Structures are given as C-alpha cells and as structure tokens.
Fold this sequence. Notes:
Helices cover 81% and strands 0% of the residues. It is mainly α.
Amino acid sequence: xxxxxxxxxxxxxxxxxxxxxxxxxxxxxxxxxxxxxxxxxxxxxxxxxxxxxxxxxxxxxxxxxxxxxxxxxxxxxxxxxxxxxxxxxxxxxxxxxxxxxxxxxxxxxxxxxxxxxxxxxxxxxxxxxxxxxxxxxxxxxxxxxxxxxxxxxxxxxxxxxxxxxxxxxxxxxxxxxxxxxxxxxxxxxxxxxxxxxxxxxxxxxxxxxxxxxxxxxxxxxxxxxxxxxxxxxxxxxxxxxxxxxxxxxxxxxxxxxxxxxxxxxxxxxxxxxxxxxxxxxxxxxxxxxxxxxxxxxxxxxxxxxxxxxxxxxxxxxxxxxxxxxxxxxxxxxxxxxxxxxxxxxxxxxxxxxxxxxxxxxxxxxxxxxxxxxxxxxxxxxxxxxxxxxxxxxxxxxxxxxxxxxxxxxx
Length: 410
C-alpha cells in the first residue's frame, strides 16, 4: 500500500508527464510556417503570448493564493483545451491571436501555482531540505513525457501528413490532466479566504513586491533566471525548422517522396533524444549542485556555458554545418534542465511560504516581459538567418552572466 508521500510524488510526476504530452511542440514553428506565416509573424505571436502572460501572471498568482490552487489549475487546463481546439480548426494568423491568448491564460494559471503546491506539500511533510532533488524528480517525469510525445507526434504527422492534427491529439492528455487536478488534496490549496476583492489583490501584490525589492539577492536571482528562461524558451523552437532543412536533404530519407513525412521522421527522432537527454539532466541537477558545492556558483557556471552554446550554434549555422548545430541544441536542453531545479530551490528558500505562488508568478512575469521583447527581435533576425538570432542571444546572455551573477551570501 502506498503511503501519502509516495502517492503525492506519483501525482506530481503524473501531472508533469501529462502536461508535457504537447504533441504540437516539436512541430509548432513548422505548423505556423506551413500555414503561411513568416518567422517575424511567428515572433509576433510568441510576443503576444508572452505579453498576455505578463498581463495575467500576477492576478492569476493572487487568485491561486487566495481562492485555491486546485481551482486555478483546473481552469488552466480548461483554457488550454479551448486554445488547442482553435489551433486545430482554423488556419489564420488573426485567429491564432485569441488562441495564443487562451494558451497564455493556461500558462499563467499553471506553472507558478503548481510549483507552490509542490513546495506546500514538502513543507507539510517536513521535507524542505529535499526541494532540489524532489523537484528534479518531478521535472524528469515532465521530460520523459516530452520524449514520448516527440516520438508519437512524429508517427502522427507521418500518418496524416499534416501538422494540424497534433493539436487534436493533445486534447486527450490535457483532459486527463484536468481530471487529475480535481484529485489533489485540499491541503495544497494553502490558506484561502474564500473570496477575492480588489483590495485583497492590491494588498497581496504590494506585499509580495515589497518582499522582492527589499531582498536584492532574490531580485537579482529573479532577473537572472528570467533572462535565462526566456531566451531558452523562445530559441528552442527554432530547432524544428533547422531539422526540417536537414531532413529534406538527408540521403537516407530521400526514398520517402513526401517532404512532410521525411520531416516527421527526423523531428520525432531528434526531439526524442533531446527530451530523453533532458530527462536524465533533471535527475542529475541535485548531484551537480552538491559536487560544485555552492548553488550560486553552479547557477553562474551554467549561465556562462549556455551563452557559449548560443555562440557555437550561431557559428555552425552560419557556416552551414547543420548536424553540429542540431547537436548544439542538446546542450541547450541539458543546461536548462540542470539549472531549473536549482532555480526553484533557490527561490523557494528565499520566499515566504504564503507568498510562493505570487512570487513564483512574478518570476514568470519578468520572463514574459523579456520574452515579449525578444521574440519579435529573434523572429526578425531569423528572417535573414537563424544564425543571427542565436548570435544575438549569446551576446545578451554573456552580458548578463558578467554583470548580474548570482550570489548566495547576503
């Protein structure tokens, strides 16, 4: 018979697995390109998504803290389901805008809220010292879900020979995730008031921001992590157009006449190994931090390495060594998944428990501000050459690594 701790770890891991069964993710940019959008238009859509998250993030975090995190999570998955339905049915740039907004509603309600539920559980069970290792385990389930989704998505696109269907099949795991949220125990809701007024929201917001701005170490970490996360989140999706170009000319696949099917095979294989590598990386985060001996030093080292990886990929793309640039993306995912559990652990250690959902959402809001600015910039640069976009990313990240390093001491 499983005890409560094991059951909750299974639930948290199941959530991560299901929410990462985003069958559309490996093919997102290819879906947009196939529907006639340019890289700049794609950048605009991503910017709209990030702007929407920016607008919604703090209210959603406050609502989660004050009215119940389970309700917020269920609403998030309902919003996702409507968004995916629109993407599947329609083909217009203008119609994609409200679909992106609904996707942003789900993102803003989900991420910081679920992290705060995990941390609440660890507090209740007296497992506060296991934050990095525990979150690494749940995140590894997410990465495993992504690996499975990549293979299945490749098979689905190969069979149907179009990219739209991936949104349809994503409705199933997200429906299951919606049901899963309803099974979470009430204790993870935290202290809720039962009602939310404008005065409550304003007071909660000002207190949370005051805690952030009075703690320079925390503020530095939030800005540092937000830049890192935003550049990774936006740049990683350029992998699929790069893989598409490689697949179309790859001799071993030329016996398949349909270019979409060739792309489906190669994208499925590449993303499977990318996500499988990310699955292992998440499990190794705690061990890496212990080996380095200092969380701040570990975070800073990974930052410098990511900046270097951006430059390396830019160079390989510029000199048209596509295979090596694809390999470079493996390092992006490795570095991100090594660093992410450390970031969550650092923030959790420096945030008051009752403000976790709001301040974790504040971190995401900083990331959204950055994302809504850089997504169109990267898209504009990519219309000339994707290598230009990555060179720009490397330059910004290197500057931040030098000027805004993490310090663990007060």
